[in-house]
Design brief:
4-stranded antiparallel beta sheet; 10 strands; 6-stranded mixed beta sheet; alpha/beta; Rossmann fold; binds adenosine-5'-triphosphate; 2 domains; binds magnesium ion; single chain; 10 helices
């Protein structure tokens, strides 16, 4: 399989802190790749670098073989990279569907439509609402389309975030701890949702602390520890790797 995403020697320093050092790995087209590691190991920093929220200090990020490091997030979004955030970023006063609609590429009503109250306005808004509701149904909360995001449970807000990321029709979806705050049942449906994404043309890079979810859904796993990749491979091999066990046990001692 060819690589959709490739990292070559990526480093990110914050002053004296090396949050990432010489990170190199590929994410094959159509794969679900897990990125795990103890707290503070650099996972979110790497998501930020890949999505253009941040730029690497050194190294290259290639999308379909083309260097994209340092490009701003909105440009990378147009090239097919979408993400969710570890700390939920929804507009609480808007409904779930309105939050999703913000990320739709479909035409939105322009200023002229609104000023002249053209009939087009109603049709466009109805179409956007329907599309957003379909995406919410895909993540299991279609019935909450008209609920203000701020009134939803934590797990449901996470699902709205995923629906919003899918609204951009990404080729690469970066998920930063999507299961955080979810109940056991919600995690099971999240696993099914993630497992179905490659069939929709979406390649996934998943950051997650829930090992059952990671081991159950990922084709391959990369392990970060103190900003460096310490293990890489199939879930069972990574789980049994002494360096990985050591990194997690070390983190528990700390
Ligand atoms: N903007 C920043 N300025 C300074 N240091 C930062 C910044 N962002 C991250 N760091 C540092 O980089 C390191 C990696 O942080 P990061 O948030 O990427 O870890 P993480 O693996 O996502 O952790 P967690 O599992 O807790 O979410 C930490 O030491 C953190 O303090
Ligand atoms: Mg993080």
């Amino acid at each position: 399989m060819s690589a959709l995403l490739e990292l070559r020697g990526v480093a990110r320093r914050f002053g004296g802190v090396a949050a990432l050092s010489d990170v190199s790995f590929a994410v094959p087209v159509g794969a679900v790749v897990g990125l795990i590691g103890p707290n503070g190991s650099g996972k979110t920093t790497l998501m930020n670098v890949i999505s253009g929220v941040d730029a690497p200090t050194e190294g290259a990020v290639l999308l379909d073989g083309t260097p994209v490091q340092g490009l701003p997030a909105h440009v990378l979004a147009r090239r097919g990279i979408a993400r969710t955030f570890q700390h939920i970023r929804l507009i609480p006063d808007l409904t779930a569907a309105q939050n999703v609609a913000l990320a739709l590429h479909a035409p939105s009503a322009g200023a002229v439509d609104i000023l002249l109250r053209l009939p087009r306005l109603g049709r466009i808004e109805t179409a956007r609402h329907d599309r957003s509701t379909t995406l919410l149904a895909k993540v299991g909360i279609g019935h909450h389309a008209r609920t203000p995001a701020g009134d939803l449970s934590y797990g449901d807000r996470r699902r709205v975030e995923i629906a919003r990321a899918l609204a951009a029709v990404p080729r690469l979806l970066l998920l930063d701890e999507p299961a955080a705050g979810m109940t056991h049942g919600e995690r099971t449906s999240l696993r099914d949702l993630i497992a179905g994404l490659p069939a929709l043309g979406v390649t996934v890079l998943l950051v997650e602390h829930d090992m059952d979810l990671v081991m159950g859904v990922c084709d391959e796993i990369r392990v970060l520890n103190q900003g460096q990749i310490i293990a890489s491979g199939a879930p069972e091999a990574v789980r049994a790797d002494p360096r990985v066990i050591e990194a997690y046990l070390g983190a528990e001692d700390a």
